[in-house]
Amino acid sequence: MGTLPGVYLNDEEGAEILASYTTIYLREEIQAEAIAKNIGAYARFLDLAAEVSGDWINYSKLASDSEIPKETIRRFYSILEETLIAFRIPSFHPKKSKRRVSHRDRVLFFDLGVRNAVLGVHRSELSATEKGRLFEQWFLLQCLYFSRAQKKDWKLMSYRSEGGAEVDLIIDVGKKYLAIECKYGKTVSEQQARGLRSFEEISDKPVEKWMVYQGESVQAFSEGERAIPFKQFLLAELPKY
How confident is the model at residue 9 (pLDDT cuts 50, 70, 90)? Predict the structure, then answer.
């Protein structure tokens, strides 16, 4: 159902509220904004943007899949950001390393219940893979909202090397980076720290390496990575910075 208070606290009518919100606001009012800027195909784009929420954006592929010009897709994303429907997580650009990294950004819907309602799956049982994707996006949003609520001067980014090593979230807290991998499972292993180690190799600051997951214990790995229950990280660790 997402985290909108009026939906989250309404067990009986939450799904209907989400459906109405996506129809009246996202598909009609925001579409009117798109039309005012002389750009069409908004409804088709909205479905696609919801589907790839949280992914690294490949504008060329989106343009091919939707048959919408690439620059139009860029403008549509700008509308979602201007209306606070979506947030952009830029890619990390190393200052010193010559290693090539992806320059693609990620864009997340502000609420996952809204994202699911756009796709018409807010009443459906989701697969484990989809739950994993949504958990990652939910966690990123919690960090983003915490940063804004506490008026932190943080920069949130994601990292992806040309070789495919990834870190879900990089938080620049000033003197160091917090590098965070989100794992939906209840267990984690040292092999899952590949992306964290790849990022540390090209970082220009000290790095704290974290894996947040749905297990119950805190673990330490051989190269300084720590695994921690996601609630403990959000409630006890993140507020320290």
Answer: very low
Residue 80 CB: number of other CB atoms within 10 A? 21
Residue with tokens 């292993």, as numbered in its chain: 189
Instruction: Give the phi and the psi of residue 213 in degrees, each rounded to 5.
Output: -150, 180
Q: Could you read off the pLDDT of 78-126 as tens digits, one per residue?
A: 988 988 889 999 999 887 766 667 788 999 999 888 898 888 887 778 8
| 102 within 8 A of 161, measured Cβ to Cβ | yes
pLDDT digits (tens, 9 = 90+) for 207-224: 999 999 999 999 999 999
Residues in the chain: 241
Q: d(Cα 144, Cα 137) in Å, to the nearest integer?
A: 10
- 170: tokens are 């990089």
Tokens of 72: 């139009």
User: Among 180, 177, 147, which Cα is nearest to 166's?
Assistant: 180
pLDDT at 124: 77
Report yes or no: 104 and 57 within 8 Å, Cβ to Cβ. Answer: yes
**φ/ψ (deg, to 5) at 5:** -55, -45
Over its C-alpha atoms, the chain yields an Rg (Å, rounded) of: 19
Q: Which two tokens stand for residue 190?
A: 């040292």
Strand, coil or helix: 172? strand
